[in-house]
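Researcher: Quick test of sequence recovery. Tokens follow.
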């Protein structure tokens, strides 16, 4: 797999997540809503878990654009992939819908969780 694109239809919009493999590492772009943008960038680096059970976890560094709240989505993707694939992972992007409701925010989060659960490298 060099590049992969996953689209999730939401009740009110579409979420698009693009994966690019760069060597052994990943660059993930998240976009959606009626005004996709760059609201956040997260760099996650794999490391041995603090549980000392041999598993892999990750540590993240975050850059947020002032006033944007995309960190949760980008951080979840970056940390999840860094740990699971044992690869440096960067996630950049943003999802924006005017007057978004709490229920719609939860729908976006669930879609991101689903992408992480279903994703397999081809």
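Model:
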């Amino acid at each position: 797999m060099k590049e992969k694109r996953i689209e999730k239809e939401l009740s009110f919009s579409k979420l698009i997540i693009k994966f690019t493999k760069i060597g052994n590492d990943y660059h993930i772009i998240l976009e959606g809503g009626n005004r996709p943008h760059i609201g956040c960038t997260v760099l996650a680096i794999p490391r041995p878990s603090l549980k000392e059970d041999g598993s892999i976890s990750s540590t993240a560094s975050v850059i947020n654009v002032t006033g944007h709240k995309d960190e949760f989505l980008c951080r979840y993707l970056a940390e999840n992939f860094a740990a699971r694939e044992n690869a440096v992972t960067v996630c950049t992007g943003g999802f924006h819908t005017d007057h978004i409701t709490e229920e719609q925010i939860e729908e976006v989060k669930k879609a991101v969780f689903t992408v992480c659960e279903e994703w397999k490298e081809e």
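The longest helix spans residues 102-118.
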